Amino acid sequence: MRKGLFFLLLFCGGNGFAQNVIVEESLTETRCESKTHMTTHYKETKTILNEQGADHAHFLCSCNKQERLTSFRGQVTDASGKVIRKIKESELQRTEYSQYLAVDDYKMYFTYTPPVYPVTITYEWTVDSHDDLIEFPPFCPQSDYKVAVKKATYQLTVPKDMTVCRKTQNIQKDISVTSDEKERQVFSLELTDLPAIQQERFGRSLRERISLAFFVPQDFQYYKTEGSLDSWNSYGKWLYSLMDGRDALPETLKAEVHQMTDGLKTDREKVERLYQYLGKTTRYVAVFLGIGGLQPALAKDVFKSGYGDCKGLSNFMHALLKEVGITSYYTTISTKNRHLFHDFASVGQMNHAILQVPLPGDTLWLECTNPLLPMGYVHEDIAGHDAVLITPDGGKLVTLPCYADSANFMGSSMKIQIDNQGKATMEMRQVAKLQQYESVLPLLYMGQDDRKRVLQETLSIPQMEIGEIEVKGNDKELQINVPSLKSQRYATISGQRMFIPVCPFHKGYGMSKDDRERTENIYVTTGYQDKDEIVIALPEGYTIEAMPKDGMIDTSFGKYSYRLKVDKDGRQVTIRYRLLLKSGIYDKAQYHEFVTFINQVASGYAQKIVLKKNSKST
Question: Which stretches does DSSP call E strand in 392-538?
Fold first, then answer.
């Protein structure tokens, strides 16, 4: 065995490559010359262990008018250390492709596919930045699951009179602060031997589990504006200054707004009317041009063009409400990170904007980018997330509400008529509310073919033939109605017996067991309630030989029950299921108990009724 490969096996713990990549060395050196200029030198050496880690062999650098790639080189070596490829700056490719309409970003990239494994790749590059120094590059040595790190070093050098705010996550070491020969401040951090992080079901996100360090200038200049990040309050004051005066509306629109709302009695009715107007007259288009990455577009420009990003649409809705005397607050939030650092303000923690409308006795949260959502509905990407209200007095940290588990409801019913060949004709109805409403909302806007494809994937019915699917929705619930469903083989016949599945819903429910030691607690972020009723008309010539007994499970994770009732003639069986899964954080020691509960639920759904052919019918 080669020495290099032997070392890799030792580093992996001899467990058959528990990780895909080893970061041999990661270096980030940032030198900030002033509030408006810095250069960052990067060097990364990675050993790609197998094909699953191949994506880490590529190079990608995001640039724009303010951030330019000024140098680059790369090198590839095999397991023995022999150089098998050198990569020049002239080999980099550039793309300005974006899913967004208006951006000034572009990407410099190099795509490399390793010919063998393991292979070691080194990339070294420098980025020059000016005018947008609202935060420094973060320290983030692990970017994916199954990536181990041998050594990662970070160094930030700033002028001696610059105050730097910093925050670490999952790092026990202190950030070193020293001075260089020119009396500039030097912030340093080094980590070694970080084990690979394994993905775990119902665990925290990777973003919450990795080692991170963030650095921002307390006082900054950003596209000729000045602000402070000493607190969320200061952040809010600066962002409010960017928005000041950008809510002015044309006189023609003001008149239209009053015509729509002056006859309405309550503020809630006015909000709803204007929210409907927003959805009908605008569409979402992302805009990231210069300061427009943080500053909302003028309300009058959104009205004129008919489009805007989350910032522009939220500001436009704010302007509409302001015209009718209703207070609202522009709000920044992250759709990725549930929690913000309460003691550390930075722009990069958030990626989205919404609107808060504090009505008497009822605070509304408006998602202005998706008119398909009901007014005030707090969707899954923001429910329970921290956010910052942008007020004239500064930023205020708040947390959005979560719906009660039982309110995230799906009610399903199905009538099934089975003939003596095992064929079935069926009709189905479903009602979904809140976050279960959100999961099926796309059906409302799909064509019949796509609706049928979705139904094929969600129902456990073999050889399914689906008729017309009716979908109706309002701001409280979504209703799905399928008057005609057929299956040529719903029940299975074996000799004198017929086996009938009792529940066609919840396809694929269950979890595989994992004997590895759990490292994460169990995070159930969204609880829900399902209620199902299935009525099965049995075929002539058969009688019930065996059927599931009623069952009930009550655990800290949730409650589950099912009851079966046969009519007095023995020709019809009614099955009722009830499942409540509770949101919460559970100790990792309970994981096997949690898996057992989920699989008990799955087993209940998977049960069958056994019929036996009557002797007279033989």
Answer: 394-399, 409-418, 424-433, 464-466, 470-473, 477-487, 492-494, 497-501, 522-524, 528-537
**Residue 308's closest CA among 247, 382, 245, 255?**
247
pLDDT, position 13: 37
The pLDDT of residue 17 is above 50: no
Q: What token pair was written down for 603?
A: 């087993």
Residue 48 and residue 266: Cα distance in Å, rounded? 62
Omega prior to 392 cis, within 30 of 0: no
Per-residue burial over 136-171, b if 16 or more Cβ lie within 10 Å, else e, is bbbbbbbebbbbbbbbbbbbbbbeeeeebbbbbbeb
Neighbours of 14 (CB within 10 A): 9
How many C-beta neighbours within 10 Å does residue 345 have? 25
Report how far apart, in Å, the C-alpha atoms of 603 and of each of 418, 462, 600 are: 23, 18, 5
Residue 101: the pLDDT is 47
Whether pLDDT at 253 is above 70: yes
Tell me the per-residue pLDDT of 501-557, one tens digit each, with 9 for 90 and over: 999 999 889 898 877 889 999 999 999 999 999 999 999 999 999 999 999 999 999
Residue 354 — pLDDT band, cuts 50, 70, 90?
A: very high
pLDDT over threshold 60, residue 99: no
Number of H helices, E strands in the chain: 10, 39
- Cα angle 108-110-114, degrees, rounded to a multiple of 5: 160
What residues are paired with 75 via a beta bridge?
86, 122
| Residue 162 vs residues 24, 31, 219, 223: alpha-carbon distances, Å | 33, 12, 8, 18
Helix (H, G, I), strand (E, B) or coil at 588: helix
513: three-class secondary structure by DSSP:
coil
Interval 34-55 mean pLDDT = 96
Is residue 105 within 8 A of residue 94, CB to CB? The reply is no
User: Which pLDDT value is given to residue 30?
Assistant: 97
Mean pLDDT taken over the chain:
92
DSSP states of 222-286: ETTEEEE-SSHHHHHHHHHHHHTTTT---HHHHHHHHHHHTT-SSHHHHHHHHHHHHHHH-EE--
Total Cβ atoms within 10 A of residue 392: 10
- DSSP single-letter state for residue 440: H
C-alpha closest to that of 395 among 404, 403, 384, 386: 386
Mean pLDDT of 444-469: 94
Q: Is 170:209 a contact under the CB 8 Å cutoff?
A: yes
Phi, psi of 476 (to 5 degrees): -120, -30
The separation between the first and the last C-alpha atoms of the chain, rounded to the nearest angstrom, is: 69
**97-101, 116-120, 607-611: the lowest-pLDDT one:** 97-101
- Mutual angle of helices 310-323 and 267-281, in 10-degree steps: 140
Written as one letter, the residue type at 271 is V
Q: Which class for 495: exposed (0-12), middle (13-18), buried (19 or more C-beta within 10 A)?
A: exposed
Q: E strands of 49-146, at which residues?
A: 59-63, 67-78, 83-87, 93-95, 102-103, 106-110, 119-130
CA dist., res. 543 & res. 617, Å (int): 11
Name the band, by pLDDT with cuts 50, 70 and 90, for residue 65: confident
Q: Which two tokens stand for residue 318?
A: 């704010």
Q: Residue 21: is its pLDDT beyond 60?
A: yes
Tokens of 72: 């680059």
